[in-house]
Amino acid sequence: MDTTVIALIIGVVAGVLSGMFGIGGGVVIVPALIIFAGFSITMASGTSLAALLLPVGIFACIQYYRAGYLNIKTSAIIAAGLLGGVYFGAELALYLPNMLMKQAYGAFLLYVSWVFIAPLELMKIRKPKPEAVTDEIAKENFLILFLFGIFAGVLSGMFGIGGGIVITPFLMAVLKFNPKKAIGTSLGSLLLPVGLPGVIVYSQNGHLSLEYAAFMAAGIVVGAIFGAKITISLPAKKIKLYYGIFLLLMALDFIFQGLIAAKL
Length: 264
Known about the structure:
By secondary structure, the protein is mainly alpha-helical.
C-alpha cells in the first residue's frame, strides 16, 4: 500500500480515538507504524510526536469548549508540565531499556480500566457508588497538575504517546472531573507543541519521518472532529465504560510490547 494512504488511515483512526477519549493519538500511531510501516520503536515514537506537534485537535477542542467541556486553566497548567517532561522522556527512550516501564504502565492502565468498566456493577453483583464529580479544580491542586504534567511529559517523550492516555484517566479518577470535561481538557493540554523538545532529540538522532508525520497529522485533524461529536452526544456513564474498554486494550498492548522487548 502507498505510504501516503497508510499514513492517512493511521492518522484518521488515531484522530477519531483522540477526539473520543482526549488522547494525543500516539497510542495508536506508534504500534501502527511498527506493524504496518516496519518502523523501529524509536522511529515510531519520534514520528508520532512530530505528527502531534501541530494543533491537530483544534476543531475537536472548539467543539468541547462550545459544549462547556474544556477547562482552559487546567489545560494550560498541564501543558506547561508536559513541555518540561517530554525532553527527559525522549532522552530516556534513547539510552534506557523501557520494557519494565511499559509493563508497569500497562499494569496501571489495567487497574484504571477495571475502575472505569466496573465489571461487578455491570453484573449487578455490587451497587454503583455515588461519585462526587466536579468540573473545576481548587487552587491547591495547581502544583499537583503541573507535576503530573511533567510525569505525563516523560511518558510522552519515552513512548511517543502524546500524554492524553495519562491525563484523561487522572482527571477522571483522581480529580473526579466529569468524563466529557476530562476528555476536552486533556485535548486542550495537547494543543500547543508540547512535544517539540522530544521531536528535536529524536530528529537529531535520525529517528523521524517527516513524510509520515505530515500525512498522519492531516488525518488526525479530520478524525478528531468526528470523535469529539461522538463523545459529546453520549451519556457520561457510557463514556466511562467505553473508555475503560479502550484502556484495557491499551494496557494489554503496553504489557505485550514490554514482553516482546524483553525477548529481543
